[in-house]
Amino acid sequence: MRLRPDRGEVATYIPELARADRRAFGIAVIGADGQLAAAGDSETPFSVQSITKVFTLTLALGKIGDRLWKRVGREPSGNPFNSIVQLELEKGVPRNPFINAGAIAVTDAILSGHEPREALGEILRFLQFLAEDSSIAIDEAVAASEKRTGFRNVALANFMKSYGVLDNPVDYTLGVYFHHCAVAMSCRQLAMAGRYLAHSGRNPTTGLLVISPERARRINAIMLTCGHYDGSGDFAYRVGLPGKSGVGGGILAVAPGKASIAVWSPGLDAAGNSHLGRISLEMLTKRMGWSIFGE
Ligand code: GLN
Fold it and tell me: Which domain CATH number covers 155?
């Protein structure tokens, strides 16, 4: 692949993530026929971070349906993923489920009626089920590292709590949030897990319905508009696919009806999105004619 040597910077605000190898790069593409095409470090587990927000959104919608939209909006924020400014102006209701505040509100909805450990187990089992891989696990060192340094998330959660947007004790909700962000998956596992979004809510191999086609379409819409924070417009412009990034350097992208794609390279751009990940997706969609906006 012809990728430029400039790779961006790895995330350091979660100290454990600073250990990632800047030179790593992996990609996995799973087509509608279930065929896997993979290259580079596609089997290396990495910290999926905010990419789990797609799966927690799916679970929360399954649990409480459209009532979720009372606690969280679905408009792009145009702000960094951990911004607190908008939250005050909008009375503690986060703009969308993919910025940190929104994902914390979604996690709180999954947690209600459960112990934190049960909620976390539900999220992990859902990922294992989607990826058809029971070896997927949480990296406890990353979870502990984020818990020690997650002051902004603590602020966001307390702020929402003060507006009655969170039902559960703040430290319970954050405990589940930090741990699900710390799930480690490889590109292959992530592409497997994303297949239902590329195929109208179904596992394309078994035909099993995971969620309704309408819900899959809507989650894809939110990924397109909000999946890359204040870099979402640029990602749509360059790549043209629904996608969700994480500060671990992963991106899950969905080519509807065609493929589920996961890329990983830990160097990030200024908005906290994988630099080479985005460039490689741009090259792939161009070559394949996969942009949802046309060739
Ligand atoms: N766990 C990270 C955080 O809360 C997730 C951020 C991200 O991946 N953009 O800061």
Answer: 3.40.710.10
Q: How far apart are CA 162 and CA 186, in angstroms?
A: 38
Domain that holds residue 129: 15-288
pLDDT tens digits, residue range 199-252?
999 999 999 999 999 999 999 999 999 999 999 999 999 999 999 999 999 999
Q: Global pTM?
A: 0.96
Scan for tokens 């792939």, then name that residue: 284
Q: Is 229 a catalytic residue?
A: yes
Between CA 29 and CA 180 the distance in angstroms is 24
Domains of the chain: total: 1
Q: Does 181 contact ligand 1 (Cβ within 6 A)?
A: yes
Catalytic residue status for 177: yes
